[in-house]
Inverse folding.
């Protein structure tokens, strides 16, 4: 199992959490334990949003200035 979700911290700020879990089963296939982890990925989500915003600004600037960008 893998998912991402948001939580509101005690101070009212928003945090983005990535969670992963696996079920440990016995020989009969019954779940006997779940191993899970949660990781705060707020900085990664914020960085991705900032990168996306900068890319949009660059695309707008190159279109308005009628210039191209190539590698």
């Amino acid at each position: 199992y893998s998912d991402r979700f948001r939580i509101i911290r005690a101070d009212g700020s928003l945090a983005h959490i990535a969670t992963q879990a696996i079920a440990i089963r016995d020989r009969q296939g019954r779940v006997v334990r779940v191993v899970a982890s949660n990781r705060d990925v707020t900085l990664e989500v914020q960085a991705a949003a900032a990168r996306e915003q900068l890319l949009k600004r660059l695309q707008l600037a190159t279109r308005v200035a009628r210039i191209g960008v190539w590698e």
